[in-house]
Amino acid sequence: MQLREPEAHEVTLFHRGILLNTRMATKKMGLASWRNQPLGIAILRLWLGGTWVYGGWAKASDSAFLSKSGPNSFSGQLTSYIGHSPLTFILRHMLEHATLFAWFVMLSEFAIGIAVLSGVAMQLAIIGGFSVSIILWLSVTFHVHPYFLGSDLAFAASWLALFYLWRAHERSGNRGRSTLIGDLIPHLKDRREVVGLMSVAAGAVIASLAGRSFRPKQKANAAIVKVADFPIGSTMPFTANDGNPAILFRTNAGVFAYSAICTHQGCTVAYDGLSHSMNCPCHGAKFDAASGAVLAGPAPIPLPKISVSIAGDHIIQA
Predict the structure, then answer these.
(1) Would you call 244 helix, strand, or coil by DSSP?
(2) Bridge partner residues of 271 (DSSP)
(3) How far is CA 41 from CA 35, 58, 79, 163, 167, in A?
(4) Rounded distance, CA 145 to CA 149, Å?
């Protein structure tokens, strides 16, 4: 019996089959993905994955984020970025469906963080994290100077470093046999990977819904302080209805209040009586106490105003 030589396309398919089986065998998820990896990759995975999960949780547990209006809602944030961002034309269209995009952002942050921590579709998740960081840079911190005061570019660089470190780690396990597109696209014929993707999606949804139970209860028309205890010229910090810190003022013109959350990176500002400004201790942003406008520093927008009034013997938040 005479044996025939295999044709070129048969050899190619054979090699592809070996490569596919090798990659499926070496692809690790869950706790196994943390074994035998360089310390640098472990640190970046913990930091970036944990931060993205925390970011999703902060949004899920914030009663204002999914609201249709308000300074702390997603729509309010989009409105404040319009006119300051190179992506203004895109943000205007997003504003029309702000709640839908708010859900998408929250679920994406959970999914990216969970995927990176669990090792599911790692390279695709890393590209997702890098893309989110670039979009945030172009939307929020594009005009921050000097540039290193904004965290979004630093996160983008960290994601990019993790991408190339992870690729090198996988190539060493696959003896150098890997392709960029092939590694990015999940192997839907691999049952383990399909189950992993479904678990990531389910985890993102469950975490988003679970965050609702941790939202602080808001009190309508909550009393802040007695009028008699807060004479003209007084200033005091207080906790707003949404659970966030705020600062109350009383002048001859009446009472007014501002959020005490810095619009740069979310630090808590404090009132300085000497300069009559609200100052951020983190990166030096200063806000005018009379209007909330930015006086100095990297903050891109003014402090949001909080509605307060005098009702009877008390000053209340409306």
Answers:
(1) coil
(2) 278
(3) 11, 25, 37, 9, 11
(4) 7
- Looking at residue 214, the DSSP 8-state letter turns out to be G
Which of 249, 241, 233 minimizes the C-alpha distance to 287? Answer: 249
Domains and CATH numbers, the chain: 8-214 (no CATH), 222-317 (2.102.10.10)
Q: ∠ at Cα 158 (82, 211), nearest 5°?
A: 65
- Note the pLDDT tens digit of each residue in 215-229: 766 555 678 999 999
Neighbours of 146 (CB within 10 A): 7
Q: What is the pTM of this model?
A: 0.69
CA atoms in the 13 A half-sphere facing the CB of 132: 25
pLDDT tens digits, one per residue of 245-254: 899 999 998 9
Nearest to 248 by CA among 264, 227, 234, 262: 234
Q: Are strands 270-272 and 286-288 parallel, antiparallel or unpaired?
A: unpaired
The edge-to-edge listing of strands for the beta sheet with 314-317 is 222-226, 314-317, 308-311
